[in-house]
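Bumping with the actual sequence this time:
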Amino acid sequence: GETVAVPLPVPVAGQGPSDGGGGEPDLLEMDPIAFEGLVAELFRARGMRAVTTQRSNDGGVDVEALDPDPISGGKIIVQVKRYRNTVPPSAVRDLYGTVQGAGANKGVLVTTSGFGPGSYTFANGKPLTLVSGAELVDLLGRCGLRGRLSAGAGDASVPAQRSSPDGEDGAGGDHNVLGMTWSGGVALDVCALVCRGGRVLSDDHFVFFNNPQTPEGAVRAVPGFAGDRAAVRVSFDALPAEADRVVLVAAVDPEVDPGGDLAGFTEAGIRLRDAAGVELDRLEVSDGRAGEVALVLGSFRLRSSGDWEFVAGGKGYPGGLEALVQEYGIEVA
């Protein structure tokens, strides 16, 4: 009879992707079936059973893997996207549906390019792992497998390893640090959106757990000072010319606090500091409410005088960060 958790071995066309001479193969130029075979080989190198699926009626599955770990293991559905451009959020949603339909424990989406913030936001807290091209090459190398990406592949969509928060590249010079404080034990992600009106300038201007700073470096997540539970550094003078507001939001971290809401987000405030850490002002923000998972803390808005003024927020979102960022124009899976 059939066994859902243990995929049947399916022959792979060709001999594995690491066959052949010469240097490391360009992942974007490999035969598609060989590329899927390479991904399956990567899972096997990590101690799992893994096979590629047949070409038809596979329900969107490219590789099935079985992690033998009795606690964290189980059936893993793997989809492979050999793209040069950013993988659309719809692909992440489709994978999630496939994982649920197959009764799998986890889904993994592997690509040669990268993912936007909408995809990471959707995947956060779900049994999904997104592997970008840069991460794939790194994993292959660690497991003794060969593969490279041609120069420039995926550069526009793979979050780069950026400089340390204390570096002065990009924004440089004068800046403010916005230190977040609150009572209660709820675990939160504090994020920022650089907007014109109510729309974020671009996906890269959403600063969150997988994109720690904007392209020009004007807004970035930083460790903060003593007493801060989270912090964002803003160089207002270095913001893009079209930006007229910086929106600060908080959302329950679904991995640390699954099922949590913002009822435990109380006595919240923002400590406005200068570059030296001297506290200039303390800005009050709304408490969270039961049933809400994300909250607009407030926004700094550019006035005609050229000054930036803080306007308190308070709008909550039962749909979490996913619903919040959609309202600001970010496509979510």
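The tokens above came from a reply further down the thread. Residues 1-161 form a domain with the Trna Endonuclease; Chain: A, domain 1 fold (CATH 3.40.1350.10).
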